[in-house]
Design goal:
The structure holds 2 protein chains of 2 kinds. Chain A has 8 helices and 17 strands. By secondary structure, chain A is of the alpha/beta class. Chain A folds into 3 domains: 35-126, Roll (Ubiquitin-like (UB roll)); 129-229, Translation factors (Elongation Factor Tu (Ef-tu), domain 3), CATH 2.40.30.10; 240-365, Rossmann fold (3-Layer(aba) Sandwich), CATH 3.40.50.80. In chain A, helix 7 (319-326) runs parallel beside helix 8 (341-353). The longest helix of chain A is centred in the first third of the chain and has 28 residues, at 2-29. Chain B has one domain. The two termini of chain B are 14 Å apart. Classes of the chains: A alpha/beta, B mainly alpha.
């Protein structure tokens, strides 16, 4: 009995050891790509360990490529232009790459691995992206499901960003995740306040990052962010402006408006903010305050399903219906949108129908 | 019947009359998830054929030269699973190293296969039915081809479905796929009786 038991254990251990040994040998020989050189923008050279995805490898070298999903291939943000030969596209890249990008060999950096010397090109401003250690200075409920998070920068102590850009928030390991993950949130504070970053975060049921922010994070905790990223900022023209946002999409618009007020940018601007009921409205007083500071700015909150208790006298209907009523054909406009993909797609539909060219519609889509 | 002829019969039976997906309903998760597009289905199908053929051969050797010899057949589940997992990992490492084209086509599907129960199912059927090495190999290859055939057919149907049909909202996705798989299984019952394997 004992002998047969021992034989069984020995045989299985032998088999497992043999396979494990095989794997280790394979990893050291076949899977070992040695040191690899990455050349960025024909200038900077970095020597890295090969075999890992490009996104993470660059992050290890403190070069941060924007990514909202943290390398799972589900946001399509982390595109880089690969100048050297790196082989064909893999299937997980293709949903995010347009035909034009294919011609330029734009790749999704989280899905390609660094196996040989590479030359890549990235926008110069990404060198400006840094990792910041911060302390949670204040947490405030804006609505029942949106929190304002004020982060005081510790190291480096100051950040330079354009109003409307976003940062990536690092969720540390905790009960819901065994590794730290990154999620993107727009800065809601104005760029002149260099020592803080203000975020507006909406609770996503079972979301790894938002659950952390709502249930685990406390004032005084240290968190890490990196940034700034994004092409969502006010273009320097004289056109009238339309802002459209819903929910936590308020954040970048608020930053842009505060920046405009500070710099005295006097352009006609209308801000349509969509919510279901008054319970989903927030920062209304701040917006009214901004209306005083910016004479040609109007804030138009619209409720899609006001209840009787709301006693609502303002605009009602879906944001698209409100837009239909307010916009005239052929106005010279620029539109800035931030919110859920559904809201953005619907709003872009209305705007283009009203004759606004698509390249004058700027948006941040947060899924 | 000579052994070669028997193996030939097993090979065809595994594709049609005893299709591992449509008669045993094994390997459903990746079947449901990946059958959305024809191209990816072909990729995954090819990977399954390759892995099933190879692991059947390797596990046949492990079974008769290790498990039977030391009289520890009851540990076959664990043994088969770790052999499959290790084999898939190794193949992925090698493919990634030697060919970018092959990696783009097959490599990314390999991790999916480690947890594909059709692979383990094929190996278990092979030892339960006490096939010889040759028949086992034929059974593995046939099962792989049968699985690939089913997923490619399903991808074709689903592609067409997306263009032409109005699927009721509650049935979109996995729901309609399962119904179609059921109808396909009924169709495959038409092959029953052509060859029987035990």
């Amino acid at each position: 009995m004992l002998i047969s038991f021992l034989i069984a254990v020995a045989a299985m251990c032998g088999l497992a050891t043999f396979l494990a040994l095989l794997m280790v040998i394979a990893d050291l020989t076949v899977g070992n790509y040695g040191e690899v050189k990455i050349t960025v923008n024909n200038e900077t050279e970095m020597t890295v360990e090969g075999g890992k995805p490009l996104l993470g490898t660059l992050m290890g070298e403190k070069l941060f490529i924007p990514s909202a999903c943290g390398g799972r291939g589900s946001c399509g943000f982390c595109k880089v232009k690969v100048v050297s030969d790196i082989g064909d596209y893999v299937a997980t890249e293709l949903p995010w790459i347009t035909e034009e990008e294919k011609k330029e060999n734009i790749r999704l950096s989280c899905q390609i691995k660094v196996k040989k010397d590479l030359a890549i090109q990235i926008p110069e401003e990404l060198f400006n992206v840094k990792e910041y250690r911060t302390r949670v200075e204040r947490l405030r409920d804006l609505t029942y499901d949106i929190k304002e998070v004020i982060l005081k920068l510790l190291d480096p102590g100051e950040i330079k960003f354009r109003a409307g850009q976003y940062v990536q928030f690092q969720t540390p390991e905790y009960e819901l995740t065994s590794e730290s993950i990154y999620r993107a949130y727009s800065c809601a504070s104005q760029p002149s306040r260099k020592d803080v970053v203000e975020l507006e975060i909406r609770l996503v049921p079972n979301g790894i990052c938002t659950t952390y922010v709502f249930e685990y994070m406390k004032e005084g905790d240290e968190v890490t962010i990196n940034g700034p990223y994004g092409e969502f900022y006010l273009r320097d023209t004289d056109s009238d402006i339309i802002f459209i946002a819903g929910g936590s999409g308020m954040a970048p618009i608020k930053s842009i408006l505060l920046d405009m007020a500070e710099k005295g940018i006097d352009r006609k601007a209308t801000y349509f903010f969509g919510a279901r009921t008054t319970r989903d409205l927030f920062l209304v007083e701040e917006m009214r305050e901004l209306e005083k500071r910016l004479p040609r700015f109007t804030f138009v909150p619209a409720l899609s399903a006001p209840t009787e208790e709301d006693n609502w006298k303002g605009e009602t209907g879906l944001i698209t219906e409100v837009l239909e009523r307010h916009l005239k054909n052929g106005d010279s406009l620029e539109a800035y949108l931030c919110g859920s993909p559904g809201m953005i797609d619907a709003s872009v539909g209305v705007l283009t129908k009203k004759g606004l060219p698509e390249d004058l519609i700027y948006y941040d889509k947060f899924a | 019947m000579t052994e070669g002829l028997f193996a030939f019969g097993v090979f065809f039976a595994a594709i049609f009359t005893n299709n591992i997906l449509l008669t045993n309903y094994l390997g459903m998760c990746s079947f449901l998830a990946v059958s959305r597009e024809l191209k990816t289905s072909v990729g995954l199908g090819m990977a399954v054929i390759f892995v099933m053929t190879c692991t059947s051969a390797i596990n046949w050797l492990i079974y008769y030269y290790v498990l039977v010899r030391f009289d520890i057949v009851y540990l076959r589940y664990i043994a088969f699973i770790i052999v499959i997992a290790a084999f898939v990992q190794l193949v992925e490492l090698v493919i990634e190293r030697v060919s970018d084209v092959l990696y783009a086509a097959l490599g990314i599907f390999l991790p999916l296969i480690t947890v594909n129960c059709a692979i383990l199912g094929a190996v278990l059927f092979m030892v339960i039915r006490e096939y010889t090495f040759l028949s086992g190999l034929a059974y593995g290859a046939g099962s792989g081809i049968g699985w690939a055939l089913a997923i490619i057919a399903m991808a074709g149907i689903r592609t067409k479905l997306n263009i032409r049909s109005k699927v009721p909202f509650g049935l979109t996705g996995a729901g309609i796929t399962l119904i179609i798989a059921g109808i396909m299984a009924l169709a495959f019952m038409g092959f029953a009786g052509m060859i029987t394997i035990t």
